[in-house]
Amino acid sequence: MPKDDEKYPFLTRKMLAFEQGTTLSIRIKSAGNTLAQTLTIRGMTKEGMFALKHTTASDGSGVTQDFRMPDFPIWVTVTLDVTGGGQGTCYVALSMLANGEQIFDLCSGLVYYQKSISYPITSNPDKRPNRGYFTTIQTTDPAAGAQINYTITDATWWKIHAIQFTLVTDATVANRRVHLKITTPDSMPIEFWGNVDQTASQTIIYNFKIGGNCMGGNDGNRAQADLLPDALFSVNTTIQTTITGGVAGDNLSAALIYVEKFPN
Predict the structure, then answer these.
(1) pTM of this prediction?
(2) Which among 30, 54, 73, 207 counts the fewest CB atoms within 10 Å?
(3) For the domain with range 133-263, which CATH number is right: 3.30.70, 3.10.620, 2.60.120, 1.10.3470?
């Protein structure tokens, strides 16, 4: 007959020959995005219930935290209990440690107000599968004659859906052609431009976007050009403009960048 401590349908210390000779812990690794969020790790061991708190970073960088456990967890779940954290703002991986060494991955995935992750693993798909967190970034407004120049500073992956800005040209007679250049951290430049020449004393709103094109030129005071549909950009990527034929009196506005962010 099995002993009483061997009848449970889950693992406990007493089932192991070394029993108390091993330190058990749970490790949580989080990658936050846009805001610091407090997560709750709830679970149960043979000893009883537990509830732990973990705070993510707001810049996309990773945070790792270990919690000592009296026994192996029967079940455990990671939740965000307040509103404000939408899909794509936080990725979490939960694992089991023995004597400080990672021995088993419990669960992992995006955690936000409408979705948690759990062990044993349950079916809880994302509300928008394979999507990140959508937000709009506004750059600083460059002085007349200066270019838009923005650097990604958070440790997330960016999928840029659209960039919009306005160019007001001065009275100098010349044809200007606006270029958008995205340069990766390894100095790989990717350049985009339309087929519109802007002349003196004109105001044109430029739209660089996924699904845009330069067929047919501009429409009134608006022009568009295409962006790469599936590119992801990381920290230290720069987003800049250049103007072929530009003069010192030409004035660019701040840029609006519509971006989908993914945890690193």
Answers:
(1) 0.86
(2) 207
(3) 2.60.120
